[in-house]
Amino acid sequence: MIKTIRSEWTKLTSTKSFWWTTALVLFFSLGYAALTGSLATGDSFASLFLFAGSTVTGLYLLGFVIIMIQATMMFTTEFRFGYQTQTFLATPKRWVVAVAKWLLYLIIAVILTFITVLLCFYLAKALASDAASSTLQVWNDEQALRIMWQYPLAAALLVTFCSGIALLLRQTAGAVALVLMWHFAIENLLSFLPRVGEYVAKYGPFTNFYAFVTNYQTIDPGWSTTSGALYFGAWAVALFVLGIVVLEKKDA
Fold this sequence. Notes:
This is ABC transporter permease. This protein has 252 residues and is mainly α. It has helices at residues 2-13, 16-39, 52-55, 57-81, 84-90, 94-127, 130-133, 142-169, 172-190, 197-203, 205-214, 225-249.
């Protein structure tokens, strides 16, 4: 497993797209944090407070999307260029390859997300007025502390979910289109359907994921936001396991 992870690390870091897409995560996340901080001038009551959740909005809206695309391409790129045969010849146990790819990018995504969160906090504080900056005490702010573990966990869940979709479809355009459509639109549109719409709104995986990340109550009053994370995690794990089963059975 360790040797497989090292080989996957070599392949990943030798790919230019990995570096520039990672740079985009930082660009969008820090760009929004900079905007948030610069608008916290303290000239009015509305601009007096600097909220931790506002500083990481760019990461939530755009950074996570790029992480989803990267996680998907960790698996589909080899099938696109036909490298999977050589990979499976070197490591005949295909599930080892799948787990190595998943674990490697999961660690990267969690670390990247945690660092980005901290950078967003401190960049916004640096650009805000002294009065507004003082309202966000990073290591004493309840919301900031929650985001520090909540967002990396959310990234890990997204990586697992997208890995499962990628293993099932094996095609970059189709897998990326599906996860992005599911992320942005599918559950929202299906929730308007008669009869079944209310169940989609309650039990859609991304609906519960949003509730966890935004810390809003889920539509089902019996579920907490933590329950939403567990529910989405169950979907993610189920898709990933199913993807490995399909990987083992299909031709390379």
